């Protein structure tokens, strides 16, 4: 059977704030079959992950691309790989059969031909909503879990600050921190988000950073006893303000720097004398280095979900054509929780 | 017996580059005796340590002083405590007797009355020159040892960059790095210093940073395979350049930021996206947190000295009146190796 496989591409490198017009929907014919012995698996995509880091792969050039994305760079016109959950349509790999539900690196397209060497994992389609395997039980979840437990090394009673706290990663970091007996304050970019943090996600406090003219003194108000752990998703001025309010032996998990993704001129200007005297550790990390924690992450997080101790916050758009606005919206703060695009249902 | 005890004070807070005229030599009478049961020890000072960090205690106010030096702040007119080696003149403490040679927190003065609670340690005055107990076997040595081994966690073959490499701490970091089988490049501020690094201290290479208009490309030349470990003594632009040239999983020991001590406007502006993708760790540390390593540090370093595998580089001025120029000289790069002032001999 042949189908028209719609996919999303970038028209050109994107260096500033992305907009819908930077993208295009294209379509190419795809035969839903695999060559004998090819080990390929054709997946019909159900939910696709929409992630800020993709923007770093779309730039003309950036220092990070030297190390990260010489290979990972997205060229105009090229398919854009992305994590997702899908259903096997046809399989040349004996580990998978038709109708298996799988998660792994798919792409911003309707069907993905998964080549051997790409990790694809079967999931139980019954216990949790399928989208959870892309959000709370997917890479965002592992990022929050590994970053919080392995990089921040929390102790009970410590004071934790999380930025983009209502986002995919941030909303989970805050919940793990509460489960660890920490005091947690988050910041986010709207009243709706702040209310969510305080009323639904159990944060001890939260504030709208866009209404704070002076971030340093805002954090002094929210943390009169100082910050022990800062889970940084934004970089630049917020990072400076958090470090200025940190306690001795404070730890900063450098998870993301979204405010710098769209504006490379924005930089933190840390007071290193302060960092030294306070013996602060700042550590950049990528979730993919922490796959050794995967089994523990899945079992504990599933358990928290089963017992109602955690909740997934998801923001789902429908149809492949909504990918550009879903993606551009990340940088406008449109999303509340994990941004996903649903293409079809099981 | 009563003596005139000369001491050095600051006349006012010092916020920029220190100069000799910021200091004054004063004198107060001191009776060389201790009250019955007081446990005090009167020490005649032999060598005093001259350290850049003292400047941070002399400032009007700095963010670091909130944590570090509310108590440690040096007020105008006040005696200025400093590490040193001296000889016991009179002791009310049964652990010490007259003529014992001791190291510990003394002050920029001729005699120091050491009160109970201040750690004073007896040293063997015969095996090594007395000055070594302030330099290579003193706090500078522990800083280099703890910072390099505990913070940088070197592996054989790794590429190490050290700034202020001919200085007290830097010259030792480079030597430890060579002893650990690393490739080591240092930077310093003059040809004499660069020659010392290459010809006497076994650095694989060295350069004069003052002759490099573009630090990033200089480091690219000296580290074509990238930097694994950066031992940072200067902060600001050099830190940026080093991080830009770091390899995946690079480690930065934030030991000092001397270029920022005299100019709080100077700041590193790290590319956090790069720091994240390269999974770099930056860690501020103070030697005094690593006293658990003290015994191992002393025994291994003494052993290296005995076998000629390490050498102490010292820069000694004579007489208490030379303290102000010795200190101000640190910030002009006058010193080659550990800066000490010798007051008298045994
Ligand atoms: N290290 C890793 O392995 C790893 C893995 C996944 C994600 N990440 C990083 O983690 C961060 C969060 O990712 P996520 O998937 O959870 O995204 P998200 O938080 O769900 O969505 C992005 C959010 O960032 C905020 N934002 C956008 N532009 C901003 C700006 N200029 N300044 C401050 N905030 C801004 C917006 O929320 P507000 O309305 O609150 O502004 C927006 O909703 C990103 O930096 C991402 O790259 C890292
Ligand atoms: N964390 C700790 O526990 C700890 C303990 C001790 C020392 N430290 C720090 O370690 C660093 C080195 O201390 P040290 O005792 O070994 O001093 P040092 O290196 O012996 O002396 C200071 C040297 O710094 C360099 N320098 C001065 N101003 C500079 C500037 N604006 N930019 C770049 N370099 C400059 C000069 O060398 P050049 O000619 O090469 O420029 C000068 O000789 C200092 O930052 C100090 O505060 C930290």
UniProtKB/TrEMBL annotation, chains A, B:
> Where does the Enoyl reductase (ER) domain start and stop, copy by copy?
62-341
Which keywords annotate this record? Oxidoreductase
Gene Ontology MF: a single term: oxidoreductase activity, acting on the CH-CH group of donors, NAD or NADP as acceptor
Q: How does it assemble?
A: Homodimer.
Q: What is this protein called?
A: Enoyl reductase (ER) domain-containing protein
Which organism is the protein's source?
Answer: Musa acuminata subsp. malaccensis
The record lists the lineage as: Eukaryota, Viridiplantae, Streptophyta, Embryophyta, Tracheophyta
């Amino acid at each position: 059977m042949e189908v028209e496989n719609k996919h999303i591409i970038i028209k050109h490198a994107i260096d500033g704030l992305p907009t819908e017009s930077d993208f295009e929907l294209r379509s190419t014919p795809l035969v839903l079959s695999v060559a004998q012995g090819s080990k390929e698996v054709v997946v019909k995509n159900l939910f696709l992950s929409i992630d800020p880091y993709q923007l770093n792969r779309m730039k003309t050039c950036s220092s990070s691309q030297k190390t990260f994305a010489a290979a990972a760079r997205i060229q105009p016109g090229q398919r854009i790989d992305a994590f997702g959950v899908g259903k096997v349509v046809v399989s040349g790999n004996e580990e998978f059969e038709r109708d298996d539900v799988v998660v792994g690196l798919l792409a911003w397209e309707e069907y993905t031909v998964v080549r051997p060497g790409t990790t694809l994992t079967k999931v139980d389609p019954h216990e949790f909503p399928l989208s959870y395997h892309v959000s709370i039980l997917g890479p965002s979840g592992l990022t929050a879990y590994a970053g919080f437990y392995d990089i921040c090394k929390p102790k009970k009673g410590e004071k934790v600050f999380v930025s983009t706290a209502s986002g995919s990663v941030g909303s989970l970091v805050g919940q793990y921190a509460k489960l660890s007996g920490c005091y947690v304050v988050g910041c986010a970019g709207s009243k709706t988000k702040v209310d969510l943090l305080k009323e639904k996600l159990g944060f001890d406090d939260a504030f709208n950073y866009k209404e704070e003219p002076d971030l340093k003194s805002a954090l002094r108000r929210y943390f009169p006893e100082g910050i022990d752990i800062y889970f940084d998703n934004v970089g630049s001025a917020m990072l400076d303000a958090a470090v200025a309010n940190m306690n001795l032996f404070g730890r900063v998990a450098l998870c993301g720097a979204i405010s710098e993704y769209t504006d490379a001129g924005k930089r933190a200007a840390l007071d290193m004398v302060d960092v030294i005297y306070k013996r602060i550790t700042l550590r950049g990390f990528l979730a993919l280095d922490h796959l050794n924690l995967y089994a523990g992450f899945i079992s504990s997080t599933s358990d928290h979900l089963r017992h109602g101790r955690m909740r997934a916050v998801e923001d789902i758009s429908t149809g492949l054509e909504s990918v550009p606005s879903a993606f551009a919206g990340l940088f406008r703060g449109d999303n509340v929780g994990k941004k996903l695009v649903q293409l079809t249902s099981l």
